[in-house]
Amino acid sequence: MTHYAQKLKNLFLISALILSLPLSAQNIVTAYTTGYFKTNYAFMVSGGEWKSVRIPIPFYVIRHPQKGLILFDSGLGEEFVSQEQSWWVHRLANSLLPLEFDSQKDPAALQLAREGIDPQDVRYIIISHLHYDHAGGLRDFPNAKIVVSREEWSQAHVDRWKARGRGVMRDQLEGLAHRLELVDYSKSIPFENFDKTIDLFQDGFLRLISTPGHTPGHQSLLVTPPPSQGQPVLLTGDAAWVMENVTVPLPKSLLIQWMEEDGPLAWKTLKKLHEFSKNHPEIKIIPGHQP
Ligand SMILES: [Zn+2]
């Protein structure tokens, strides 16, 4: 393939991700983004190159044959701008991580509506953790049960200053209590090299994996469709930000490790993800904010 053709091919592959076309998982898992953060790659990976990057703020649509439409994470939501404007602390904290976000276009519910998917039809949202860039869309899907770890939920329900210090905008979680399906990892089972996992619907399709460190109750999701329907996918959430975190493996930068709830535990979790990915090259790994 000529250099030019290779470039074209790369461009096509990147466009496919940005335009949310299903990749190799054949429609079982589809990746979208609700805008982009502008940051530096050196923050994402220890020893990483000093270069500006635009990183997606993703959510994923999963089609379960019996349970219907399921999201993993929800990105920034329709109310983000007003939530941010409502408190100077949000404005100040969020200004440290500039973003590109169009509230008329980018929220998950609006993107799905444009594709003819009624946000009312989403049955479940599995949430990796409650940072504002993942929980922002929860209120936009009124009929979705929210699958969140019990620990994550209780850690976010502290006064709004403390919550904000943990990366949580409490406004995004108002009015959700009746929709919760709290995941209790004290009743979990080991799976492969992970200590705590839960087969969500007891059908082997969606396995929740406790991946703490970035936040105390962080969870990742292993999607295993029947072999005829596509490739298994591991959605790491923010347990890993980019592929290098998992493949090498490399921790996040020292600054980020210091900012995470438990940096050493986050690194331990990353090493487990690395080991798992090495044992299972057939599983596609999708990190939380791959540029
Ligand atoms: Zn994030």
How would you characterize the overall build of this protein?
By secondary structure, this protein is α/β, with parallel strands linked by helices. The protein has one domain: Ribonuclease Z/Hydroxyacylglutathione hydrolase-like (Metallo-beta-lactamase, Chain A, 4-Layer Sandwich), CATH 3.60.15.10. The protein has helices spanning 3-18, 41-44, 80-85, 88-95, 108-114, 132-135, 150-156, 160-165, 243-247, 254-259, 263-279, and strands spanning 29-40, 52-64, 68-72, 99-100, 122-126, 145-149, 180-183, 189-191, 194-199, 206-210, 219-223, 233-237, 284-287. A seven-stranded mixed beta sheet has the order 4-1-2-3-5-6-7. The two termini are 25 Å apart. The model is unreliable at 1-26 (pLDDT under 50). Bound molecules: zinc ion.
> pLDDT average, as an integer?
91
Q: Give the structural class.
A: alpha/beta
Q: What is the CATH homology-level superfamily?
A: Ribonuclease Z/Hydroxyacylglutathione hydrolase-like
CATH class descriptor: Alpha Beta
Number of separate strands:
13
Radius of gyration: 18 Å
The appropriate CATH architecture is: 4-Layer Sandwich
Give the cofactors and ligands: zinc ion
The third-level CATH topology is: Metallo-beta-lactamase, Chain A
Q: What's the N-to-C terminus distance?
A: 25 Å
Number of domains: 1
Oligomeric organization of the protein chains: single chain
Residue share in helices? 25-40%
Low-confidence stretches: 1-26
Strand content: 25-35%
What is the H/E order? HEHEEHHEHEHEHHEEEEEEHHHE
Q: Give the neighbour order of strands across the main sheet.
A: 4-1-2-3-5-6-7
Characterize the largest beta sheet: strand count, sense, and whether it forms a barrel.
Answer: 7 strands, mixed
